[in-house]
Task: inverse folding
């Protein structure tokens, strides 16, 4: 259970003082985009509040705008929430309240608190005024109740085209709060709705439907980010004038702002449409589907949200904190394996040509109960190309002519020669091994400074490793030029990596199971390279692995 915060303190005080006798919260996403990391804070606060105080948490889709809503988002939002463990008491839709909203709109007209307006969208903006200048009353604000009722009935019957008329609340065009300047509560839209079909051609605005949905459902606490603070008087106004005794208590908090990324729906879609990323679940995206595909564990995201905390003040969280939470989770839970990213062939000249043996490599240094992995070893192996230099600098403890190193879980080997091609690039290393050093320890007590990971050449299979990094190379990629700050190294593809087939089988099987269950794919630490998971782009014959995070930050 998360630690206390000012929101939970308010709820505790309300319950103690009898202001409320129960807790009911909700998460009301608009099904027009994928959820991203910023949404998790909002979900977590509402979900945990209900859980902490023995209340009810509902998922309610704000499907009031059929022009922008898509079925695929209804599905993806549910999958993402369940992946993180956020289940709900009831699955609801704002469209379930369209009848009640329409009745409430009629009630406002009958009270003289709403009118049908003929201003166009541009004229509405002009009449609204600015933050420093009051707005102007619409020429149609003085229509009689009877005329407004007739016009709204005809709007509902479909007599007018889109944009011809709106229904507006009659509040105060001189209010310093611009949201109270006769806001639009209904607009005409001749379009089929995913949930109600062709029943309606007028649809309520979010600011009207949202508070009424909360009131009808019995929501006691509306937890939302600070940008909705100025909407609170309008939220309360609608609930009061429709006839509810007490509105749900709205409490605002600072939203989650993360640097080195963008969460804007418009900017994210542009990244996809212009080919800067492959899709909304591209592992470089900060969407929850992207994080899942990258191999980010749900526990790491919960840890991140808990560390960020809850406050009223605006702040920006460093991306490195999210990476640190991922590392902490994977370091404790990901088994170790060996893979060679940029292979260099090694021939162990004194190892028998027809011999192959099974060696054991521990799966995790802190989990001896996990046992060891079985890997094959033979005369020819692969090591990382960067682990050999002809003329090494000082304190270089890896392979170079005449130097001896330890092969992880195997033997001591010494470089006795190498071959190069016509361009001077090393193509082959020649080494000898010490048979008495099996397991990586010498019986005579001699020390070696370098330990290398490796892959048996005869048993290895080819794989593609995708090394992901931050999508942007500046902390605040805002403005119209944000695409100029895309990190050119956000994706490095290594097509010729060598991996162990037994590990591939385990990871690809786990990927298939996690895909079917919409859970996280299994992760592994490739020694010295980072944490990886399998990707659906791969096949058993040529797997693809995504790097979730490197072992250390280069930022």
Result:
């Amino acid at each position: 259970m998360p630690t206390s915060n000012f929101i939970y303190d308010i709820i505790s005080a309300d319950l103690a003082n009898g202001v409320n006798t129960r807790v009911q919260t909700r998460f009301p996403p608009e099904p027009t985009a994928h959820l991203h990391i910023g949404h998790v804070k909002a979900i977590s606060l509402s979900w945990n509040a209900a859980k902490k105080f023995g209340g009810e948490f509902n998922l309610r889709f704000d499907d009031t705008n059929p022009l922008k809503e898509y079925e695929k988002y209804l599905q993806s939002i549910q999958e993402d929430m369940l992946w993180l463990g956020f289940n709900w008491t009831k699955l609801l839709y704002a469209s379930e309240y369209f009848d009640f909203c329409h009745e409430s709109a009629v009630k406002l007209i009958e009270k003289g608190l709403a009118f049908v307006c003929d201003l166009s969208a541009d004229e509405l903006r002009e009449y609204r005024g600015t933050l420093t200048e009051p707005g102007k009353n619409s020429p149609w604000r003085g229509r009689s109740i009877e005329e407004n009722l007739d016009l709204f009935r005809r709007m509902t019957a479909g007599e007018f085209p889109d944009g011809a008329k709106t229904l507006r609340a009659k509040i105060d065009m001189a209010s310093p709060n611009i949201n109270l300047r006769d806001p639009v509560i209904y607009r005409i839209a001749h379009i089929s709705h995913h949930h109600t079909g062709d029943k309606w051609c007028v649809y309520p605005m979010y600011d009207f439907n949202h508070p009424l949905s909360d009131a009808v459902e019995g929501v006691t606490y509306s937890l939302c980010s600070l940008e909705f603070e100025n909407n609170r008087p309008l939220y309360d106004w609608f609930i009061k004038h429709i006839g509810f005794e007490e509105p749900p208590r709205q409490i605002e908090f600072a939203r989650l702002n993360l640097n080195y990324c963008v969460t804007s729906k418009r900017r994210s879609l542009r990244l996809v449409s212009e080919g800067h990323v492959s899709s909304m679940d591209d592992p470089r995206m900060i969407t929850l589907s992207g994080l899942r595909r990258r191999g980010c564990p749900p526990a790491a995201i919960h840890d991140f949200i808990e560390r960020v905390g809850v406050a009223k003040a605006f702040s920006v969280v460093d991306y490195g904190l999210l990476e640190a939470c991922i590392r902490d989770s994977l370091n404790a839970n990901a088994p170790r394996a060996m893979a060679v990213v940029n292979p260099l062939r090694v021939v162990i000249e004194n190892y028998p040509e027809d011999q192959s043996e099974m060696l054991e490599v521990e799966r995790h240094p802190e989990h001896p109960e996990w046992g060891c992995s079985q890997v094959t070893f033979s005369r020819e192996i692969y090591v990382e190309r960067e682990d050999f230099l002809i003329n090494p600098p000082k304190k270089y403890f890896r392979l170079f002519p005449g130097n001896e190193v330890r092969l992880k879980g195997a033997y001591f080997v010494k470089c006795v020669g190498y071959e190069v091609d016509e361009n001077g690039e090393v193509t082959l290393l020649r080494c000898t091994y010490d048979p008495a050093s099996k397991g990586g320890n010498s019986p005579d007590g001699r020390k070696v400074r370098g330990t290398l990971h490796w892959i048996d050449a005869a048993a290895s299979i080819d794989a593609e490793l995708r090394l992901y990094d931050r999508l942007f190379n500046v902390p605040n990629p805002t403005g119209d030029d944000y695409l100029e700050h895309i990190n050119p190294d956000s994706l490095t593809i290594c097509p010729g990596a060598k991996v162990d087939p037994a590990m591939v089988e385990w990871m690809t099987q786990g990927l298939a199971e996690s895909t079917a269950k919409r859970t996280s794919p299994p992760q592994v630490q490739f020694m010295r390279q980072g944490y990886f998971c399998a990707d659906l782009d791969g096949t058993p014959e040529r797997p693809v692995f995504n790097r979730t995070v490197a072992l250390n930050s280069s930022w």
